[in-house]
Design goal:
By secondary structure, the chain is of the alpha+beta class. The chain is 18% helix and 50% strand. The protein has 2 domains: 9-38; 49-161, Elongation Factor Tu (Ef-tu), domain 3 (Beta Barrel). Strands 3-6-5-4-9-10 form a 6-stranded antiparallel barrel. It has a two-stranded antiparallel sheet with strand order 1-2.
């Protein structure tokens, strides 16, 4: 008796393609049961804790700076979710480098612009993999984030995480 006959049946009983399809359905079913029955759930309860971080916003006009008040809620532009409350506002003159005629660079103040520092307090998750506000907004020092309050929208840089 041949392993596969002229009609493509294995041992003359079942078609090879049918057996492959049945095995594939069994493997997918076993994987589904394993994922939903035995694997750890992704929605584990994680304790939220206070996180304090500083956002630097460069070269904004003074009237924008004057619209920001302590106590304003800060939001992530991408998701629209709140990412903390502004607790402290500081500023310094904005500076930039200009190329001088002799080929050197000189640091000068930028006219009508300031750099603002917003200290923000939020509830988040601190783990080995990082700091997360609202479990999704990752805080990485040096990362650029689009942020907004009720009165302005801009791009800021996470300057530091105070913990």
């Amino acid at each position: 008796m041949k392993l596969i006959d002229k009609r493509g049946k294995l041992f003359g009983i079942a078609n090879v393609v049918d057996i492959i399809v049945i095995l594939l359905v069994i493997v997918i079913g076993a994987g589904t049961v394993y994922k939903f029955k035995f694997m750890d759930k992704t929605s584990k309860d994680v304790a939220m804790q206070p996180i304090t971080y500083v956002v630097k916003v460069e070269k904004i006009r003074d009237y924008v700076y004057n619209n920001v008040k302590e106590g304003d809620e800060l939001y992530d532009v991408t998701s629209g979710n709140p990412i903390g409350k502004i607790t402290k506002i500081e500023s310094e003159p904005a500076t930039d480098y200009i190329n001088m005629p002799d080929g050197t660079f000189k640091k000068v103040n930028v006219e009508n612009r300031i750099n603002a520092y917003f200290t923000v307090e939020a509830e988040g998750v601190v783990s080995d993999s990082g700091h997360f506000v609202n479990k999704t907004f990752e805080l990485l020092v040096g990362s650029h984030k689009k942020i907004m309050t009720k009165y302005f929208e801009c791009e800021g840089t996470i300057d530091s995480i105070v913990k």
